[in-house]
Amino acid sequence: MGNCLGSSTRIDATHSTSEASKFPSGSLAPSSISVPSHSSKSSVHSLPTPRSEAEILSSPNVKPFSFNELRNATRNFRPDSLLGEGGFGYVFKGWIDENTLAAARPGSGLVIAVKKLKPEGFQGHKEWLTEVNYLGQLHHSNLVKLIGYCSEGDNRLLVYEFMPKGSLENHLFRRGPQPLTWATRIKVAIGAAKGLSFLHEAKHQVIYRDFKASNILLDGEFNAKLSDFGLAKAGPTGDKTHVSTQVIGTQGYAAPEYVATGRLTTKSDVYSFGVVLLELLSGRRAVEEEKVGVEQNLVDWAKPYLGDKRRLFRIMDTKLEGQYPKKAAYTAATIALQCLSREPKLRPNMTTVLSQLEELQSPKTASRGENRTSFDPVYMSPLKHRNTARNVTPSASPLPSYLRSRVK
Ligand SMILES: Nc1ncnc2c1ncn2[C@@H]1O[C@H](COP(=O)(O)OP(=O)(O)OP(=O)(O)O)[C@@H](O)[C@H]1O
Ligand SMILES: [Mg+2]
């Protein structure tokens, strides 16, 4: 399906502001960042060779945009175009022409998301380039599509396909959107698992390293796509990376061995997947500082309940209002528990996790023991929107068709 990266990725952590700014975009100057090249068409991948910054930026898969083009596409980065803010900068909604990719009138053409990195000190340059490198080469329906980038003066921007439902984080933890149904949560977990297993199973394995709810983006049908490859690393497993502030950035999601020793393997991603699965089940954040004691850390708090069929309901998201199949919830909790093993070797690989999750979608498992009532749980919110169900056509339901007919 996609292209793969080699195992020789080298990213020089000493890459500095002054070094980076010496070389304008597209110049052939040497870069302290070198990453492997890829084979583009053949299914037999050639041996990876290091790629310079100029090579990465001249990839035929991504378009270089001028700053002015992106300013026009986002209506001058207007605050009302703001989609979100992250550690590295702001994300704006914009429009470009589908064919020429030139800035288009708002509301016409292709909708895009433009991430504008905070220019201070060039801190994000390395991550920006890593993102262009990985997403310029990796293509999969569960990875967000990178359309292009901009490198002009101190400005560093990234242009992505627009994901209409935003991030999983927004849906699980923010007030406003209707609570995700059980079926949607499993669909999201499966989509994200597909993205991760694609990276792990690629001939030249990729460790994603930043798996968390805010990096799982959702399209109009709640198909999950992974975003943010700024921290990604090529295998082989067992790579030893210096523990950096980025581990703090993924607080609550990072595997214990990675936090303690900087030892990084694909199994560290599996641990993070377990944390997100737990967030999907419980509706709680990985870390909640306003809570006290053991409840601050989701894994510590929830672990004792995961293997206990009778007490599992205590950690389940109350926003589900009990509308989930009990057996499937227990199976999902068991998968999470395995992913969260302290010993990396005891964690399953993502292919196993994926097939176990897919089992939960089979009509038999999905319906058994389900505690459904006469209303459609997809559109029921404990807070509001109770009248919106009658405005929604059955085809708009994110539930699989076999469930849709059952809950009318
Ligand atoms: N392609 C996209 N389409 C729609 N919304 C997006 C897109 N990319 C990002 N967003 C929105 O912008 C928000 C900020 O994203 P960003 O990746 O900058 O930060 P983050 O993931 O929240 O944090 P971090 O900096 O730690 O990665 C996301 O949570 C999401 O709501
Ligand atoms: Mg992000």
Walk me through the structure.
- It is found in: Cell membrane.
- This is non-specific serine/threonine protein kinase.
- By secondary structure, the chain is an alpha+beta fold.
- The protein folds into 2 domains: 20-161, Phosphorylase Kinase, domain 1, CATH 3.30.200; 166-392, Transferase(Phosphotransferase) domain 1 (Transferase(Phosphotransferase), domain 1).
- Helices cover 32% and strands 14% of the residues.
- It has 14 helices and 15 strands.
- The strands form 5 sheets. Strands 4-8-9-7-6-5 form a 6-stranded mixed sheet, sandwiched between helices.
- Strand 8 (146-152) and strand 9 form a beta hairpin.
- Helix 6 packs antiparallel against helix 12.
